[in-house]
Each structure stands twice: as C-alpha cells, then as structure tokens.
Amino acid sequence: MTQTVRTPEPLTIVHEATLQIFPGEAVALIGPSGAGKSTLLALMAGLDTPTAGRITLDGHALEGLDEDGRAAVRAGRVGFVFQSFQLIGGLNAWENVALPLELAGDRDAGKHARAALEEVGLGERLRHLPRQLSGGEQQRVALARAFVGEPALLFADEPTGSLDTITGEHVIELLFRLRERHHTTLVLVTHDPALAARCDRGFQVRAGRVSEWQPDPEVLQS
Amino acid sequence: MTGRRPATWRLAWQGLVRELQSGLLTSMLLALLVAVASVTAVGFFIDRVDGAMRAQAAQFLAADARVVSPDPLDAVAHEAELLGLTTSRLVTFPTVVLAGEQTLLVGLKVVDDAYPLRGSLRIQDAAGSSTVTHGPPPGEAWIGRRALLSLGLELDEALQVGQTRLAVSAVLESEPDVGNVFSQAAPRLMVHRADLAATGLVTSTSRVEHALLLASDASDRAARLDRLEASLPAVLELERPESSQPAFEAAFDRAARFLGLAAVVAVLLAGAALVIAARHYNLVQQDAAALMRAMGASSRQIGAIYRWRLLMLAVVAAVPGIMIGALTQLLLADLMVAVFEVELPPPGLMPVALGLAVALVALFGFALPSLVQLKHTPPLRVLNRQATAPSPAAAGLFGAGVLAIGLLVWFQARDTQLTLYVLGGLAVSLAIFLLVSWGLITALRRWPARGVARFGLARMARARWVSATQIAALALGVTAVLLLSVVRADLIQAWERQIPPDAPNVFAINIQPDEVDAIRGFFAQWSVADAGFYPMIRGRWTGLDGEDVDISRLEGSAHRLATREFNLSVGDELPGSNEVLQGHFPAAGFSVEEGIAETLGWSLGDRLTFRIDGRPVTAPITSIRSVDWDSMRPNFFVIAAPSLLPDAAAQYVTSFHLPDGSEDLQVELLHAFPTVTLFDVSRILEEVRTLIARASQAVEYVFAFTVAAGLVVLLAAFGASERQRIHDTAVLRVMGATRRMVLAALWIEFLALGQLVGLLAAVAAMGVGALLSAQVFDLPLRLNPWLLAWGVGVGLLLAVLVTPLLGRRMTRVPPARALRG
Prior knowledge:
The structure holds two protein chains of two kinds.
Chain A: E1 3-6, E2 10-14, E3 26-30, H1 37-44, E4 56-57, E5 60-61, H2 67-74, E6 78-81, H3 93-103, H4 109-119, H5 135-147, E7 153-157, H6 165-182, E8 185-190, H7 193-197, E9 201-206, E10 209-213, H8 217-221
Helix pairs in contact in A: 3-4, 3-5, 4-5, 5-6
Chain B: H1 8-22, H2 26-61, E1 65-69, H3 74-82, E2 86-99, E3 102-111, E4 121-125, E5 128-132, E6 140-144, H4 145-151, E7 158-161, E8 164-174, E9 188-192, H5 196-199, E10 209-215, H6 221-231, E11 238-239, H7 246-294, H8 299-336, H9 350-371, H10 394-413, H11 416-446, H12 451-462, H13 464-497, E12 506-511, H14 516-525, E13 534-544, E14 547-548, H15 556-563, E15 566-570, E16 578-583, E17 590-593, H16 594-600, E18 607-612, E19 615-627, E20 638-640, E21 651-656, H17 663-672, E22 677-680, H18 682-734, H19 739-775, H20 786-812, H21 815-820
Parallel strand pairs in B: 3-9, 6-8, 15-20, 17-19
Antiparallel strand pairs in B: 1-10, 1-11, 2-3, 2-7, 2-10, 4-5, 4-8, 6-9, 7-8, 12-21, 12-22, 13-14, 13-15, 13-18, 13-21, 16-19, 17-20, 18-19
C-alpha cells in the first residue's frame, strides 16, 4: 500500500508497504518520529485509505468501502490503545469502558465493563472521571476499553508515550498479559526497540518504507 | 455480544447528564430555558387575558354568540338546540308608545325568559336599584329613564304599546347588549315575548330585527358554535364576542404584539447563543465522535446519538422553562385583575405545547446544523488531531436558522408582517454587523499598536471572521436590549398618548340642525371642548357602477352592511382622526373608509348609489380614508361631498370630554335638549387606559427575559473562546508576561470590542425602533439620539462586567497545567 498527501506538495508517507499479520501474532512497527508508523497503523485499521494498494482486515477487503463500511468491519473486531489515552472526559471510567459495547448493542455492557475494569485493577475506580485518574490509571482504563469487546485485533499507538518509565512498564506488562489471555492479535507502534522486541515479529518503518526488523541482541540483553 | 440495535438514546442520555454536570452544555441549556420561559409566560398570559376578554365581551353581547336577521330565526334556533346550545330570541323595532296624551318613539326590545344568556341588567323599581339576570315578566314593561321623563310617567302606571297596555314596573338603567350606540337612536322599552302578539305590532311585512342569542357551558362550546356557523345560510353571520369591543380589543392586540415581540427577541437572542454554543460544542465533541467512529460506530449512529441528545436537552430545558413561564404568568396575570370585571380563566395547555415546540425548533434550527457534522468526523482524528469534521455548510446553517427564526417568530406573533420585518431586519443587521466588524478589525490589524495593546488587539485581528461573528452576535444581543429598553419606553409613551386624558368620553346624537349652535353655546358656557359637530344622514347602499346591488350574492359582514342603513356624513373638512390613503379630499364624490371598501369590494373611482330620503344619489368614490376608530371622535364609513346632498334631512353627532363628577352637566344638557341622546363611554375608555398601563408593566416583566437572553449570548460567546484564551495566556506568561500585562491586554481588547458592539447596536436599534413603531405598531416615533450614548454605556458595561471575570479565570490556571491541556 502507498499513502501520499498533497500538503503543500505531494509527500509519500507510506511507500509500497507490504506486510501480512497472522491471527494471534504480536507485531511491532518500529521507527523514529515522523517515519510513517502511525499513518501505517491508521491505514491498517481502516481509519484512513491508501492512495494505492489493498488492505484486508480480518478477512475483509477494505478498498471500495466507505467510511461507514470500514467502521462496520472494525466494529467488535478491532480495539485501540492510544498514546494520549483518548478517554471521553465527560464519562467516568466505567462508562468509557462500556462505550464500545453500547455502540455494538450489548445488553450487558455495564456488567462486562465492570469485569474489564476489575481485570486491570481498577474495580474501585469505576465512577471516577478521567481527570480524577493518574496517567497510568487512564491508560489502564483505555486497556480495559480496548479488550472489553474481545477484539480479534488490537492496534496500540505508542501506548507508553505519555507515561513515565515505571508506569509505562506496568502498562505494557498488563497489555501483553491481557493479549495473551484474550488471544488477541497485536499491532504495536513504538520507537522503543526493547518494547518492540517483546513482540513476535517487527517491521521497521523509515521514511515510509517498511522492512522486516530484527531486534539487536544487545538491546534484548539490556 | 448481541446483534441488537445499539441503545443510542442511552449513550445520548449518559453524555447529556455528564455534559450538563461538567458545564459544557450550560450555555445551551440556559439559552433554551430563557427562550421557553419567555414564550410560555407570554403564551399563558395572553391565553388567560384572551379568555377573560372573551368572557367580558360575552357580557356585552349577552351571549357567547348571536345571529341577527330581518327574518324570524326559528330554523336556526331549532338547529342550535339540536346542537345542545342554549338559545334566547329577541325582536327589536322602533314603535310609538302612548301614555295619556303623550306619545314617544321608542326602541322596543322584546325578550324571552332566557334573556340575557350572559351578563346582567340594572333596573330601578319600587324596591330600589338592583342587578338582575332576566327581563320583565309578562304584562310588565321596563323603560329607559329618558322615555319615562318624556312621557311624564310614574312607576307602576300603564303604557299603551300597540293594542295592549303594560304596567311600567321598572326603570331600565343598563342592559348588556346595547349594540351599536348610533343605531339605538330612540330610548329603550323592554317587554316580554309573551306580550308581543297582543300588541299586534308585528306582522309578516313588519320591518323588525330578529336576534338569536346563543350560549353553552360545555367545554366544546367553540366547536358547537362552529358547527352551527357552518350550517347557517350564506346571508346569516354568527357574531362572536371578540368583535364587540373594538377599542379594548385594539389596545390588547397592541399589548399582545408588544409582549410577543419581547418574547420573540428573547428567543432570537437565545438562538444566537445556541449557534455560538453549538459551534463550540461541535469542536469539543469531535474527539468523542472520532473515537466512537474508530470503535466501529457508523455515521448514522453518531448522528442519532447527537440528535437524541438534542431532543433530550430540549425536554430537560423545556420542563423547568415551562414552569418558570407558568410562575411568571401568575405575576403578569396579577397585573390584569383590576382590568377585568370577570375572573381571569385558568390558562390552557397550548402554551405548554408551544414551549416544547420552541425548545425543539430552536435547538434543531440553531444547534443541529453544527452538530450534524459530527457524524462526518474522520476516525483518523484519534491519531491526528489535524483531521477535523467538515465545517457546517453555510447554506445549511443559514437555511435552518432562517427557517427556525421564521417559525419561532410566527409561533409567537402569528403575524406574517411582523415575521417578515423581524427576519428582514435580522438578516440586514447581521450582514451589516459582520461587514462593519470585519472592516474595523482589518483596520485594527494595520494599526501599529505597541506593548500590551498589541496583544489585546492582535487576538481580535488574528481570526477576523471569528471575531466579526462574535461581535455581530453580541451587537445583535445589545441591539435587542437597547431596542426593548430605550425604544420600548418611547413606544409605550407614544401608545399612552393615543388616548390622552382629555379624550372624548361622551357621545351626543339625535342633535337637530337648529340645536347645533345652542349646544355649542351650552358647551362654551360649561367650558367643554367638543370634537366637532358632524351631520349624520341615513342611507341604504343600492348600486355599484350603475348596477343594482344583488344582496343575495353578498355573504357575512358584506351582507350585513348591505342590508342595513348606513350613517353617512356630509362635509368638506376631513375629521381629525382620518387620513386620506388614495384619491383627494374634499372632492365632488364619496370618501369611504378603507375597511368597508375592502369588505364591499369598492375601489377608487367606482360609482356608488345610495338611497337617501327616498331618492338615489350617485357619485364616484373620490377618496379612500383610514380611520382611527380608537379616537373616540365621531367617525363615518362614508362622507359625501356637500354638493351631493344639499338638502338631505340630517341630524348631528358630536363627542366631548367630561371630567369625573360632571354628571350634573349631562342632566342639564338633557333637560335643555330633551331629544338629544347621550352615550357615556368613559367606562370603556378607563378600561382601555388601565389595560395599556398594566400591559406596559407586563412588557417590563417580559423584558427581563430579553436581558437574561442577552446575558446568555455573552456567556456563550466568551465560554466558547475561554479554553483558547487560557492557553494563549499561559503562553504569554511562560514568555514572561506579568499578570498585570495579561489583564491590561484583556482590558484593551474588551474596551475596543465593547465600543464596537455598543455603537453598532445603537445605530441598529435606532433604525429598527423607528421601523417597528411606524410599520408594526402604527405609532409615530422620532429617532432617539440618546441611543448612541446608551450604546457607548452598554459597551463600557460589557467590558467592566466581562474583563475582570474572564481575567480571573484566565490567570487562575497555572501555565503548566494550561499548556498540558
């Protein structure tokens, strides 16, 4: 797939990228800032459309689908975790987690949301608004929200980017534990080689070009 | 997980509750609350006053409705009884009665046992003065005091009426259905229907007036009357009480327009606040919408969530809004207690529906166009905040806004003319406000300001259209407040001047030509100013452009007017309360009143024929006049040129003002001129004056809603930009600006903005005020130059009110936190 934007001159952000991710895998997209990792993630998740190429998500070809068609493919299959948490400020933790289930019409959204929050250790903070939670707690709510619908695929965009190192490590531990428990395919965007090395496979993104990535053994040791 | 349809309403409600708690929806909620409260308060109030007016008017008709005909109305009465209506049958005609050697022409009124169906009569009999709700019993007659004196009768003496003799058992002091004062030239005699046959006065060829009075206490009275009206032959008309008191009705109609306008302005201001607040809400909600789209929500779901949320917000605002409206109307209704003899009826449910409708129309017209775009928020925004929902199409915003305003104004005023004026005035004002603001901001941008002034002015100049929109919205709010505060006072004063304290309150009719000079002398002796003496000639309209009038082809009031005799006047001097609309006056033809010309289909130049004193008089219509019927001066539908009727038999009519406690003068006048008939209209004049005074007060109360709506506009305008201002302030402070510098910049910005807003609004209020008074309220009004000073003052007040408040909020947040967002 290729993604080119025209602001102000044509700029190719993702250049003829080809990659295949299998069910149950954990795949890292690693590269420096501005390399095109997040754009690649957006294309894979159907949040954006490539200017050329094709994407198949969980067996569904995304090309030719309009925004609503791609949303329907994502619904119930795809979860997200973002660097900036993306919790809805007006809703409390429980309501934030229940939101994807509510949108999917789940009658037991509240019950499942409570269980998901308990799973991430926030069973006591159900009624707290995002601003009443620390950064690490907010990201745990986001994890609960990502996994509550039992998605087949989870896209995580720099999930520790807004957290300090220790909190970040706790969040990553939790992310991998949940992924294993729920058998979820993971696509993780990061610029941290150590974090990327925890995945089954890695792809390096540099100036929009994608190549296989192998972790540096020294990094692994450190 | 199930495949059930998602509960969008639940998500909508959840978000609504949280956003109300967080204050995000405060401006929208308050705007709706004010709009609903003002509309329902005025709605409830007008509903109740209207009800009271109908009840009171019903007393003047002695019924809920009446049918009048030269022929017996037995068939109509039968139909009415089948519909469950109570009926009373009257017959009236002039006849000569005899008492000893004395004869007198009287207006005989024959009533049945049911009379009157509404209201009461005041009589004086041997036991004294009393109020009764029935007519004389069979065998007795009640007589007007003037007739009693003229006939030299005493109570309980007998009177010869046709072929029968009746005992005069009471003096009739007042009766509810007096009717047209000028048609009742002769003094009254009232007898029972059972005695009519014995008088032998009415035969099949007699010219009498039959009246059928109708009433019902059923809740569906109006529907029953409507059904009866539908069954009436074309030549008959159902008279309803609302048309029985034109002066009172005209005054209340004007009051209702004033109140309606105040409420409409409050609603329009609320609309402006909604537009601003919804735009801000759209920006804040884009993150949530993008997130839901990333989670797989369809655009339809997103749209439904926000539509549901608006619907719920409408209900949440409408319920307390209607309650506030209901409480306010209690206050307003209290003002009107003194105006009516009857108790104000409880309000109907229509204003509740109106309040709800206003909330929905306002939200969907002003807020939905902004929010509907949220469904197009790209899900990519979750990763890239540069991705935004498309801006609402200007055409959509404009179209929905115009439709909403049009609907709201029409709901309130039920007046197409007022609706068009408001829409036109608003569109022109907004366009001018926007262009002038844009021009001035552009000029400010080039002004080489230094230091803190540069920061303050730069903020305005940075986003010219945003600032211009904000200034235009605020100027609109201030225009409305100025319009209703300053211009309102002018309008009310002009309105009160319509019926000055020395307006004529007594009419004198049946004045013979040779009595005119003597009565003038009498008035001069008593220092009474008269409204002029006008000849009055009776005539029947018989032809139009050379063809006979075909009465059978006329319907309703046209039929009624054509079957009755007109009171024409003769003269070449235009009465004071008349204005020539078309043609010339004086001229050798007929001058006709615009209303009757419209009813009977007359136009300038048409040749009219009247039968006067048994001979036809034909001439063209040479002018069409407007007549101020509230003036309490003698006025005429038709005025003929003196050359057309050189020797017609005329009686004269005049009106004059008698101060309170001058009853002696009336008695003296009647003694000196026994054939003259006096009609005292001071009571109705006093009622109209009281109504105007109380309605003015009601306008003051309703005005509070307008001011509240203006404040909500302010809140919305600054609430929308608060987050950006806090961020900008944090940047300034990080770069070393002191708190004092930040506040100074803010003062400069708001002083400039306040003056701009104030002056724009003052000029607009001057123009709109003059237009409204002249075109809608039919009042003369000069431009008020003090509005400019008021504008400057309001601009200053705006800066003084807003700057410290906003300054505190902007500097309270530590820069680090503000920059973190």
